[in-house]
């Protein structure tokens, strides 16, 4: 699935006629319906028709689903689209999937680890960097991550300096 990008996930049934609660990972959540049929990891394909915004996502109808039980069975299913159907990004913009796996070094060249995940809890993105037996969370801001070189597979980071509590 390396040529596919995860754009959403099914959070469960919504209603009794096969509608689903859809969690969109798109910058504009409603854009998930603009990319054409969405595919699952096991090869199924669904046309998405958005119904309305709901708490925790979007109410949607997926082609081929007509019962609550069918919708419930898909809970947790991730939905993908071909990278070629996604919009081009501007400078200093990246798809999360492009960042995962990149090597992360500090400004002095020391290896910190590799990006294992990208999180977003409402503010800026946070890079999770898996190093030698530990994880490091870095705000994905220009101040902390001044360089992203996709061609070289490398990120240069300037992690905040940790301070120790001192009684003076």
In short:
The chain has helices at residues 68-73, 96-99; strands at 4-13, 20-24, 38-39, 45-46, 48-54, 57-62, 78-82, 103-106, 111-120, 125-130, 135-139, 147-149, 154-157. It is mainly beta and 168 residues long.
Give an overview in words.
The chain is mainly beta and 168 residues long. The chain has two domains: 4-85, RimM (Elongation Factor Tu (Ef-tu), domain 3, Beta Barrel); 96-157, PRC-barrel domain (SH3 type barrels, Roll), CATH 2.30.30. It has two helices and 13 strands. Strands 11-10-9-8-13-12 form a six-stranded mixed β-sheet. A five-stranded antiparallel β-sheet has the order 5-6-2-1-7. A two-stranded antiparallel sheet has the order 3-4. The N and C termini lie far apart (56 Å). The model has no long low-confidence stretch (mean pLDDT 89).
Secondary-structure blueprint of this entry?
Blueprint: E1 4-13, E2 20-24, E3 38-39, E4 45-46, E5 48-54, E6 57-62, H1 68-73, E7 78-82, H2 96-99, E8 103-106, E9 111-120, E10 125-130, E11 135-139, E12 147-149, E13 154-157
Parallel strand pairs: 8-13
Antiparallel strand pairs: 1-2, 1-7, 2-6, 3-4, 5-6, 8-9, 9-10, 10-11, 12-13
């Amino acid at each position: 699935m390396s040529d596919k990008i995860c754009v959403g996930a099914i959070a469960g049934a919504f209603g009794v006629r096969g509608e689903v609660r859809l969690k969109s990972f798109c910058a504009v959540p409603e854009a998930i319906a603009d990319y054409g049929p969405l595919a699952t990891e096991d090869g199924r394909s669904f046309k998405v028709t958005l119904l309305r915004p709901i708490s925790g996502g979007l109410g949607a109808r997926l082609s081929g689903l007509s019962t609550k039980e069918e919708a419930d069975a898909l809970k947790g299913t991730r939905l993908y689209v071909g990278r070629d159907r996604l919009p081009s990004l501007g400078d200093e913009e990246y798809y999360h999937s492009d960042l995962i796996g990149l090597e992360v070094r500090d400004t002095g060249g020391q290896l910190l680890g590799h990006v294992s995940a990208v999180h977003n809890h409402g503010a800026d993105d946070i890079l999770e960097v898996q190093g030698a037996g530990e994880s490091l969370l870095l705000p994905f801001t220009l101040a902390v991550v001044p360089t992203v070189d996709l061609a070289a597979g490398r990120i240069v980071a300037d992690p905040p300096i940790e301070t120790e509590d001192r009684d003076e």
